[in-house]
């Protein structure tokens, strides 16, 4: 079962640990890299593009896909962290993911059939597959959280 990643306490703890880990790695001549993939076409995508540029400046490998990208699943399976903001309820299922990934679900929609809020990821389908996932509702949704969850690949 994937670890449920809740906002502030996770952010604070991971933020402090990442600063220490990156400093130690750089002290040993290693610059950490990270692959993050975002799927979606929301109007506020510019914030993701700015974040992608910041990560690339730190030598991270960043892949940005659109919901119309051919074979998105083959791309998402390669990422360490998958940020989903597709604007399409329950768009990402287990065929898009693999073991050990961190999944940040930025989507939120009301599912009339289930009678509850849900995200762009099929949570029940993937929670036993991935290492960590943000639930909807109740997850940690922000660009800063995406950056601090980069701790997983540092390990």
Notes on the protein architecture:
This protein has helices at residues 7-27, 46-57, 72-76, 123-126, 143-148, 151-154, and strands at residues 3-4, 35-40, 61-65, 81-85, 102-105, 109-111, 116-118, 132-133. 33% of the residues are buried. With 155 residues, the chain is an alpha/beta fold. It has a single domain (3-7, 32-154), classed as NAD(P)-binding Rossmann-like Domain (Rossmann fold), CATH 3.40.50. Helix content is 34%, strand content 19%. The model has no long low-confidence stretch (mean pLDDT 75).
Layout of strands and helices, then pairs:
Blueprint: E1 3-4, H1 7-27, E2 35-40, H2 46-57, E3 61-65, H3 72-76, E4 81-85, E5 102-105, E6 109-111, E7 116-118, H4 123-126, E8 132-133, H5 143-148, H6 151-154
Parallel strand pairs: 1-8, 2-3, 2-4, 4-5, 5-8
Antiparallel strand pairs: 6-7
Gist?
The protein has 155 residues and is of the alpha/beta class. It has 6 helices and 8 strands; from the N terminus they run E-H-E-H-E-H-E-E-E-E-H-E-H-H.
Q: Count structural domains.
A: 1
Strand content: 15-25%
Low-confidence stretches: none
Report strand order across the widest sheet. Answer: 1-8-5-4-2-3
Q: What is the tally of beta strands?
A: 8
Overall pLDDT score = 75
Can you name the CATH architecture? 3-Layer(aba) Sandwich
**Alpha-carbon distance between the two ends:** 19 Å
CATH superfamily, please?
A: NAD(P)-binding Rossmann-like Domain
CATH class: Alpha Beta
Largest sheet: 6 strands, parallel
Backbone CA Rg: 15 Å
Q: Report helical residue fraction.
A: 25-40%
Helices, by number, come to 6
Q: Sum up the overall morphology in one term.
A: globular
